[in-house]
Amino acid sequence: MPETIVITGAGTGIGEACARRLAAEGADLILIGRRQDALQRVAEDTGGLVLAGDAADSATWSRFTAIIRERSGAIDALLACAGGHGLGNATDTSDDSWAAAMRSNLDSAFHSARACLPLLIPRRGSIVLLGSIASLAAGPEVCGYTTAKHALLGLTRSLARDYGPQGVRVNCVCPGWVRTPMADAEMQPLMAHYGDDLDHAYARVTADVPLRRPATAEEIASVCRFLISAEASIITGATLVADGGSSIVDVPTLAYGRMENNA
Fold first, then answer.
1. 12 CB-near residues (< 8 Å, 6+ apart)
2. What proportion of the chain, given as a percentage, has pLDDT over 90?
3. DSSP 8-state code for residue 138
4. How far apart are CA 155 and CA 134, in angstroms?
5. Contacts with 26 (C-beta within 8 Å, 6 or more apart), sequence order
6. Max Cα separation, the chain?
7. pLDDT digits (tens, 9 = 90+) for 174-188
8. Which class for 173: exposed (0-12), middle (13-18), buried (19 or more C-beta within 10 A)?
9. I need a surface site. Which of 13, 191, 236, 241 has the fewest CB within 10 A?
10. Cα dist. 141→17, 83, 132, 146, 175 in Å?
11. Local structure of 139: helix, strand or coil
């Protein structure tokens, strides 16, 4: 019997890459996202079931889980890839912007996990939450995003602690820069300021990353696939950083590296 896997944020970026990777392995996919047209495009290639709606809404999940239960009975994994922005420093962040950052990045993961857990427990399934290096450190002018992504680590650990005795594993993947449509949009200010094209903008933001490049969505999908596989059967409550090494860089010593490179 093929694995039944639920993917939120499945219409684009890392969620789409996960869907394509898992479909190639024969998985039965449930594709969730807010944009019907994007999901339908992925479904045409993967054969997944499209459920369009807001993953941060509990009433929407009540409808989704009823459909999933009738269709599949239970699920083997949830990949919670839905997310969004959270731009601005604290004083520039309005109440609405703060709420939107929490809803898209944290509430969507919580509601997805809470709704899917009763379907995961019978199969001793697993959950992967999509964090970020913003779960580990703060970038400039992204207060809402950073706070929400940090909170995902707490959610990961709480779920792993509470549901491990029932066989459910929960882990968090923290990518650095990944070439996705959302990240492409974040390159636009750099492109405008420096006159860069997209490739040079990515090169600029990864100039101090040990691997000197962003990840592809497919690379992060491979990490997610590993975490829901039998090969990761003892791993739960973990934060798997997939950032090309950016989080290991000692920022105060960057000036010395630049001095050596310019020698």
1. 33, 35, 38, 180, 181, 182
2. 91
3. P
4. 15
5. 2, 3
6. 66
7. 999 999 998 999 999
8. buried
9. 191
10. 28, 17, 16, 9, 19
11. coil
Q: What average pLDDT score do residues 165-170 get?
A: 98
Domains of the chain in start order, with CATH, are 4-178+215-261 (3.40.50.720)
Q: For residue 121, give the 3-state DSSP assignment.
A: helix
CA distances, 42 to each of 68, 120, 213, 238 (Å): 18, 24, 27, 29
Q: Tell me: pLDDT of 215 over 80.
A: yes
Mean pLDDT of 233-261: 88
For residue 255, name the pLDDT band (cuts at 50, 70, 90). Answer: confident
Please name the residue that has the structure tokens 């997939």: 242
Torsion sign (Cα): 19, 238, 68, 103? negative
Average pLDDT over residues 75-84: 96
Question: What is the spatial distance between Cα 229 and Cα 155, in angstroms, rounded to a whole number?
Answer: 21
pLDDT at residue 1, as a whole number: 62
Q: 216, 7, 225: which is closest to 108 by C-alpha?
A: 7
Residue count of the chain: 263
Pairwise CA distance, residues 169 & 159, whole Å: 8
**Pair 57, 32: CB distance under 8 Å:** no
Question: Rg of the Cα trace of the chain?
Answer: 19
Phi, psi at 222, each rounded to 5°: -65, -40
* Active site (catalytic) residues: 145
Q: Which amino acid is at 212?
A: R
